[in-house]
Amino acid sequence: MQKSDKINWRALFSPQSVIYSLLGIFSATVALEGFMLPNHFLDGGITGISIVVEELLQIPFTYLLVAFNLPFLYLGYKKIGKTFALRALLSILLLTVLMHFLEVPAVTEDKVLIAVFGGFLIGLGLGLVIKGGGVLDGLEIMAFYTTRNSAFSTAEIILALNGLIFLGAAFVFDLETAMYSFLVYFTAAKTTDYVVNGFEEFTALSIISSECEVVKSLIVNEYGKAITVYKGERGYLPGAYEIKHDCDIVMTIVTRLELHRIKEATLKIDPNAFFFVQRIKEVKGGIGRQTTKDPFKDYVRKNLQRSDVETGE
Description:
single chain; 313 residues; alpha+beta; Alpha-Beta Plaits; 4-stranded antiparallel beta sheet; two-stranded antiparallel ribbon; 6 strands; transmembrane helix; UPF0750_membrane
C-alpha cells in the first residue's frame, strides 16, 4: 500500500478532525504552561528535547518545538502522505501560537500533582490530536519506521529514546526532576493509549462450556463476532485424574464493552462455563477489525487505508 500524494482537503478540515485537534492542542498547552515548563518537568520525545535545549541554550521552547519536529514531519510527508504531514504541521504551529498568546499560570507546586496531572493533560492532548489525524511529537514517526528494520516494537524504541532524554535531563537539571519526568511520560503514555483506543481495546475471550453449540450461536449470531474453535479435553481434576472428555474451546476477539456482555449472556446459558481472558497486543487479518496497542501505528494504518479509498490510489 502506497502513501497518498494528494491533499484531502475535506478530511483535513472535517469537523471531527478540527474539534479533536483543537481540544488536544488546548489540553497540551495547559499541561505545558500550567504544569511542566514552570517546573522543568519533561514529557518524552521532541517536547522533552526542546525543554532540555531551552535550558541549555536559552532558545524559546516554541521555536525549538517547531524546528525539531520539521525533519520528522518531512519523513511523515515522504512515507505517509501530504494530508498527514500538513495536518501535523498545522497542529504543531497552532500549539506554538496558543502558547504564545495564552498565559496559563502555574497550577500547583506539588511535584507529584505536577507529574500526574501534567502527564494526564499532555497525554490527553496527544491522544486527541492523534484521533484528529495529526501528531504533536514527530519522534513517534521515526520510531514507527525504525521498527521495519529492527526486531523491537515502536513502544520499545520510543522508550529507549526517551530513556536517553531523561538521562540528559538528570545532568541538565537533577536526578529528582528526571525521575518525576519519567512519571509524567508514563502517565501521558497511558492516557494517550486510552484516549486513542478507549473501549476499542481488543481482548481474547476463550470459553469452555458444556453448551458450546449454543454459546457459538450466541457469539456469532447475536453479537456478530467471528470465532475460532479449538478441540480440547476437559477433566484431569485432582482426585479424578482418569476422568476426561472431549470439548470445544471457543475463542473470540472482543472489546472491553463486549467482554462483560458476552460473559453475562454465556452464564445465563451455562452457569458453570469457564472463561479465560488474554490481552491482545495486535490483531490483523481475518474478517475482524484491525487494531493495535500502539496509538500512532493504529492511526497510520487507518489513515493510509482511508487515503487510498478517498483518492482512488
